[in-house]
Amino acid sequence: MKLFKSLISCLLVRIMRKFFHNNPHVRLVAVVGSVGKTTTKSTIVDVLKHNKKVRTNRGNFNAEFSAPLEMLGIDGPQNPRSITNWLSTIYRAYRSARQLHDINVIVQEFGIDHPGEMAAFGRYAHPDVLVVTAISPEHMEFFGNLKTVAQEEFALSSHSIVTLYNRDDINSGFIAFANSERNLSYSTEPDADYYITAHQFNHSQGYACTLTHGEQTSREFIMPVVAKHQLRIAAGAAAVALEFNLDVESVITALENFTPVSGRMNLLSGINDSTIIDDSYNSSPLAAKSALETLYQLPAKTKVAVLGDMNELGGTTAAEHRTLGTLCDPAHLSHVITIGPNTAKFLAPAAKDNGCTVTSFDKATDAVELLQSLARQDTVLLFKGSQGGVYLEEAIKPLLKNSTDSKKLVRQSKEWLRKKQAFFGKSLS
């Protein structure tokens, strides 16, 4: 089977080279980074789609076999273990590569788990723009240290015309790994090549802000987001659009109509007039810190942080969970609720040492009764946790004021619900 996978990989590389040879008009935006890829990708698509015909990957199909198929616009094999299914898929991929595609831009995530995987994408992916969202701990059981992560995430830059990197979330020492013809920064702070300045925040509307590029500053506009780190993502999307020579006004109009991706800093109405911040898609040290900072800035009387385990941190697991616990501030939080063994073992004691009230649960559904008692008027509940073995969205569901809002939660397909029912040992609606 290993030999067959190697053959499939080589065939997909040849097919993708043929696709780009036959479609020289298609420009490629590659989105990489430790966190924020999906939201960044979606925001870029939202900004570009009003002026360009855009193709983008569905969900998180961003790996060695799934990424090229998404770029070709075809489905993968029904059974990934079936040789017959893969041969059929390769045939369809080859036919797609020979065709002239009626699109202008592909916006594609590229995800990695091990060193060397990003360079493999470079065998066929030569981005017009590479966007690097962040460098932070990820899959540390394989990467070992942040320098290795940074080298891997910037590996595509040597194949790219422009690299756009998030200066706020990337250590300046790692920028040396950017190796494109032009290396540009985006930020929420001045002195970046592209930056969004936040002037005022209203929790019911979002941020009043301006976009600056070079010596040009836009008119003030409202970005309908609750977290300041979402402005960095918007700055990156604006930078891509302006690099593609879109006019500033069309970029701003798109940002004014921004809709957050499910499970990523979504504001939802909760029972008893409470407010829910749904950031349940996944978690990492940098993203969890940003989520807490967002919660602290909101003008609510009572704030509750529901924090699930952060997965795939390898040898840094204990330290990163303790660090997040030290960021739990009793001056802002009336209650910290942890879900999973790592938050219970490492985060909870650190938060208690800070003076926080902490309750720990093994599974998200175990916390529902307590959460229902805490959900009150002028209360904001933040949900932040990783995917596998956590699934905080199932603790959110019983707290929703409108049951139809469950459609806005992540992982609600029949396949996901079956998987989670097995995990929780109970039926999920």
Automatic annotation (TrEMBL):
<feature type="domain" description="Mur ligase central">
    <location>
        <begin position="31"/>
        <end position="241"/>
    </location>
</feature>
<dbReference type="InterPro" id="IPR051046">
    <property type="entry name" value="MurCDEF_CellWall_CoF430Synth"/>
</dbReference>
<keyword id="KW-0067">ATP-binding</keyword>
<dbReference type="InterPro" id="IPR036615">
    <property type="entry name" value="Mur_ligase_C_dom_sf"/>
</dbReference>
<feature type="domain" description="Mur ligase C-terminal">
    <location>
        <begin position="263"/>
        <end position="386"/>
    </location>
</feature>
<dbReference type="GO" id="GO:0016881">
    <property type="term" value="F:acid-amino acid ligase activity"/>
</dbReference>
<dbReference type="Pfam" id="PF02875">
    <property type="entry name" value="Mur_ligase_C"/>
</dbReference>
<keyword id="KW-0436">Ligase</keyword>
<keyword id="KW-0547">Nucleotide-binding</keyword>
<dbReference type="InterPro" id="IPR013221">
    <property type="entry name" value="Mur_ligase_cen"/>
</dbReference>
<dbReference type="Pfam" id="PF08245">
    <property type="entry name" value="Mur_ligase_M"/>
</dbReference>
<dbReference type="InterPro" id="IPR004101">
    <property type="entry name" value="Mur_ligase_C"/>
</dbReference>
<dbReference type="GO" id="GO:0005524">
    <property type="term" value="F:ATP binding"/>
</dbReference>
<dbReference type="InterPro" id="IPR036565">
    <property type="entry name" value="Mur-like_cat_sf"/>
</dbReference>
<protein>
    <submittedName>
        <fullName>UDP-N-acetylmuramoyl-tripeptide--D-alanyl-D-alanine ligase</fullName>
    </submittedName>
</protein>
